[in-house]
Amino acid sequence: MYQNNIKAGISMKKVKLSKNNKLFLLFPIGIVLTALGSHNPDLIEKVYSNGIYKFISQPISKLTGLFPFSLGELLFISTIFFIILKLFVFVKRFIENPNQRKKTFFRFLRNVLAFISVLYFIFITIWGMNYHRQPFWEIANLGNTKSSVKDLENLCESLIKDGNRLRLLIHEDPNGVMYLPKGHDDILNRAYKGYRKISTTYPQFNGSYGKPKKVFISELMSYMGISGIFSPFTIEANINTTISSSMFPVTVCHEMAHQYGFAREDEANFIAYLASKSNPDADFQYSGTLLAIIHSMNVLYEYDNDKYWELSETYSDGVKRDLLDISEHWDKYEGIISRTSSKVNDTYLKANYQEDGVASYGRMVDLLLAYYKRTEIITQ
Fold first, then answer.
1. Mean model confidence pLDDT for the chain
2. What residues have CB less than 8 Å from 286, skipping those under 6 apart?
3. Looking at residue 202, what is its pLDDT?
4. Residue 232: what pLDDT?
5. What is the predicted pLDDT for the residue at 144?
6. Radius of gyration, alpha carbons of the chain
7. DSSP β-ladder status, 236-239 and 228-231
8. Contact 156, 311 (CB under 8 A)
9. For 139-193, what is each residue's pLDDT tens digit?
10. pTM for the predicted model, two decimal places
């Protein structure tokens, strides 16, 4: 009996090892799915983004939305502590058992690879395939035509005029900078209005998701140069509360765009503009317009420096103060952490087939130009 028990124990150990090894297969499966998805955007749009993803994401989002705090943030912090604990245990065993170091190392490596494989596969299946859906210009029937520098100038002029008008409706603090009189929670509660409005034109925004959430480690996010972050594992839109008030409403809308399955950053920016402008409240409209001004004027600076400075003189005093406040906020947190975070983000975007990396944010202006041309707001 004793001998049989030993054999049974060995057999069970082999079974467990076999099951653990199978987890490694999830990583190449995820890579294959990603590669196939990148070559079949129409299929991803129809079957995954408007089917599987919505079926999975909305129940998860409603469940996590029941909690007043960010489960994604808690998951992130817990994972960091878990990794540190596992590293500590590994180092301790490695030092204390010199005769078992090779076995200890390969066991640790096997567990790390299995952990990464599982996380990557979950990421791809729950949300990541959205990177390969149809481009938003195609979904929204905006066209993909090139625009002239004159078109860009007209866009900037129109946006600045709109921004100056909306700025008159905004609350100011004693320093003359936009502030939110009812706080961040009030913005989080009203953000859905813009998406409800644009869903009548774009059915891709139908459906209900959990309310965006404030992040406890907002200060750290600012040091990392991050305004908001989407948690694909909990389908939560997480917002940095230390950012300038003028950027808070549109940042909320940006992270909500990710909830609706739009993964590309440039498209999420444009969608955030649409949702903000469609919101009935002036603070959202102004915030979205200010984001569009910043992106459009940055591109104009590259193509026509003189026109950039000429148009920047037409900013109202309130707009100038808000832009200065935004700049001063990020200058305060500039450093090695933010530069490292930018490199990590750049690598992440390229890994998901966004070859331009962080430069892809600039393509928001192409969508703005196409949208404004279609609505005949700027001269064609």
1. 87
2. 163, 166, 167, 169, 170, 178, 246
3. 95
4. 96
5. 67
6. 24
7. antiparallel
8. yes
9. 998 876 678 899 999 999 999 999 999 999 999 999 999 999 999 999 999 999 9
10. 0.86
Q: Which of 377, 342, 360, 293 is nearest to 136 (CA)?
A: 360
Q: How far apart are CA 307 and CA 310, in angstroms?
A: 5
The domain boundary residue, chosen from 79, 112, 132: 132
* pLDDT level of residue 374 (50, 70, 90 thresholds): confident
- Give a yes or no: residue 379 inside a domain: no
Q: Write the DSSP assignment of 33-89 as a string of letters.
A: HHHHHHT-HHHIIIIIIIIIHHHHHHHHHHHHTTSSS-HHHHHHHHHHHHHHHHHHH
Q: Name the percent of the chain lying above pLDDT 90.
A: 70
Whole domain around residue 100: which residue ranges? 2-132
Q: What's 257's DSSP letter? A: H
The C-alpha atoms of residue 99 and residue 161 are separated, in whole angstroms, by: 74
Could you tell me if residue 94 is inside a domain? yes
217 has pLDDT over 60? yes
With respect to residue 205, please indicate whether it lies within any of the assigned structural domains: yes
Looking at 104, 132, 160, the residue that finishes a domain is 132
How many whole angstroms separate alpha carbon 372 and alpha carbon 151? 10
- Selection from 184, 161, 162 nearest residue 282 by Cα: 162
